[in-house]
Design a protein that fits this description.
The structure is a single chain. By secondary structure, this protein is of the alpha/beta class. Among the domains are: 4-101 and 369-375, Immunoglobulin-like (Sandwich), CATH 2.60.40; 387-574, Aminopeptidase (3-Layer(aba) Sandwich), CATH 3.40.630. The protein contains 22 helices and 15 strands. The chain has a seven-stranded mixed sheet with strand order 9-11-10-12-15-13-14, sandwiched between helices. It has a four-stranded antiparallel sheet with strand order 1-2-6-4, with no helix packed on it. The radius of gyration is 53 Å and the shape is rod-shaped.
């Protein structure tokens, strides 16, 4: 709707004109009409000050959908909670559904790169110490056992001879070690290897003997390495064995790598093994290895809390393993791994570094509800809870009402309007409006009492009148000034606003002087016959305290009903 205030109409089809008391229906009926040509959602709120509100049907007390042009009926039942006044507020909000486009992050269907070879071939994934491929035959020399013993005796003689050089002795050591290795005596071969004087050469020869013997009897070699107590030595040998097995049995190489304790070394080896699996298109094993790498290094990464930068060099292994998984498996798999990282800082860094690989920004249409207040109305009602009996209930049911200053026993007024007759319309709205206008706009007070007789004040109605007058006006004796009680009646149109008052000359003169501002726009008539005295006036004089109240018959023509400003000016003149 171009004008939001026109999207819905709230028509009050029933409103209580009576005094709001407990145990009476006090119904407000509302006809809500959706003026839109399509379905709309509205939210109604009904607020009560000194009022309890029961909404029927219940589903209209909140958010509700209206079809195109649909009408729904709402019924409010009011219960007063204090004497004086109750405020009823009715708000309608239009819940307009608005579509808008935003950029959102989404996991890609396929990775945006193809860099598996490049990642697996990184130099930093080479082993920390260069390992050359080994030719086992160079370390296995088949020598007859007798000849082997003869060579060992010769070696023992050379050690004692000052003429033997170190080179000659160590050449003999290597020959004996290779011979005993061929003779299936690796322990003997290794004992000879440890007699080499140069530490570097000794350890290289020692490692190579073990690697060479693995080609003869791998299981025994593996058990022998596992039994070594020197952790560093054992880890290095496991590393070598895994490296050698890559070209023989890749799965065996993976199993050996799992025994390596050094996380970085193990991750490097697993990357190297993954490269070999990739060359034979064994993606399943690649995925298994990469998951191992992620599990290994994720636990070892330490964040620098100041710079928010990854301090541990293991981070590259983690990032690249996830990258390869995104390409070889799916970006969804990689995203799930990132989400499972317990460290929020690490999770954010990996996601940022791999954003273009795994994620993309796409346009997404979203909807939101914009709440717009399109109707707000409040109503003031006169409420009373202090006394509850048959007469008061009948007073309310007949349509009786009393201004709230009387209800709270505020008698700072000198004019009271009593409307005791029934018309084809309710007199309450115009009396209540002038009461509030004078009080809140001009800081002037009047009072009113309404009891629209249905039975010309038979015995029952007269009982209600007398009871309620005494109930509400019993404290008039506290008033510091005389109160003019106007017994107000209306007669049909006379062509010009006409005022008729009973023949009390001082009242007539007083009203006449105050109506000068209205000029010739109204007629003022004094009456000493038809509109003077009467049964009701006599009854009022008996019920109301005579020392405080002066009862005067006052008749207005219907023109005052249709000209509120003139009516207001007239009432103001009486004060």
């Amino acid at each position: 709707m171009s004008n939001a205030s026109n999207v819905i109409s709230l028509n009050i089809t029933q409103f209580p004109q009576n005094l709001i008391i407990p145990n009476v229906a006090n119904v407000v009926s509302i006809q809500a009409i959706n003026n839109s040509s399509k379905s709309e959602n509205y939210q109604f709120t009904f607020e009560g000050e000194n009022l309890s509100i029961n909404v029927k049907p219940d589903e209209l007390n909140g958010q509700v959908e209206f079809g195109p042009g649909e009408t729904k009926n709402i019924e409010l039942r009011l219960t007063p909670t204090a004497d004086g006044f109750g405020k009823l507020t009715i708000n309608a909000n239009w819940l307009k559904i608005v579509q808008y486009t935003v950029k959102v992050q989404r996991v890609r269907d396929t990775a945006s790169t193809n860099k598996i070879n490049q990642i697996l071939g990184k130099k930093e994934y080479n082993l920390s110490k260069k390992i050359d491929k080994l030719n086992p035959n160079e370390y296995i020399i088949s020598i007859d056992k007798n000849e082997l013993k003869q060579l060992e005796r010769q070696y023992n003689s050379m050690k004692k001879s000052p003429e033997s050089s170190i080179q000659e002795i160590e050449s003999m050591i290597k020959q004996l070690a290779k011979g005993y290795l061929a003779d299936n005596n690796p322990q003997k071969a290794l004992e000879f290897a440890l007699q080499i004087s140069d530490d570097t050469e000794k350890m290289n020869f020692y490692y190579n003997l073990i690697r060479a013997y693995a080609s003869i009897n791998f299981d025994y070699t593996f058990q022998m390495v596992q039994s070594i107590t020197d952790i560093s030595l054992k880890q290095t040998l496991l590393h070598y064995l895994a490296f050698d097995q890559i070209g023989i049995d890749i799965s065996q190489a993976t199993s050996i790598s799992n025994l390596i304790g050094d996380e970085i070394l193990r991750a490097k080896l697993l990357f190297y093994i993954s490269k070999k699996f990739y060359e034979i298109n064994n993606n399943l094993e690649i995925v298994n290895n990469l998951n191992q790498i992620i599990s290994i290094v994720a636990k070892s990464i330490v964040l620098n809390s100041d710079s928010k930068k990854i301090k541990n060099k293991s981070y590259d292994f983690l990032k690249d393993a996830i990258w390869i998984l995104a390409e070889i498996n799916s970006p969804q798999t990689a995203d799930a791994i990132i989400e499972a990282i317990p460290s929020q800082e690490l999770k954010e860094k990996v996601a940022m570094d791999l954003f273009n690989v795994i994620y993309e920004m796409v346009d997404e249409i979203k909807t939101k509800v914009e709440s717009t207040l399109v109707s707000s109305q409040y109503f003031m009602l006169n409420t009373y809870v202090s006394t509850a009996n048959g007469n008061l209930k009948n007073f309310s049911l007949i349509g009786g009402n009393v201004s709230n200053n009387i209800l709270v026993k505020d008698f700072k007024f000198n004019v009271a309007l009593l409307s005791l007759f029934s018309f084809d319309f309710s007199i309450f709205p115009i009396l209540d409006r002038v009461y509030n206008d004078l009080r809140y706009s001009l800081n002037k007070s009047i009072a009113y009492y309404i009891l629209p007789s249905k039975e010309n004040y038979n015995e029952s109605e007269l009982g209600v009148l007398n009871y309620t007058l005494k109930l509400f006006f019993n404290n008039l004796t506290r008033s510091s000034s005389q109160i003019f009680v106007y017994n107000l009646d209306f007669i049909p149109y006379l062509g010009k606003p006409t005022i008729i008052v009973s023949s009390e000359q001082d009242i007539f003169d007083n009203i006449k002087s105050k109506l000068k501002k209205l000029g010739d726009s109204v007629n003022l008539i004094i009456d000493d016959s038809l509109f003077k005295g009467g049964k009701i006036v006599e009854n009022l004089n008996q019920v109301l305290p005579p020392n405080k109240c002066r009862v005067i018959n006052l008749v207005l023509s219907y023109e005052f009903i249709n000209d509120y400003n003139t009516f207001k000016a007239f009432i103001q003149s009486l004060i």
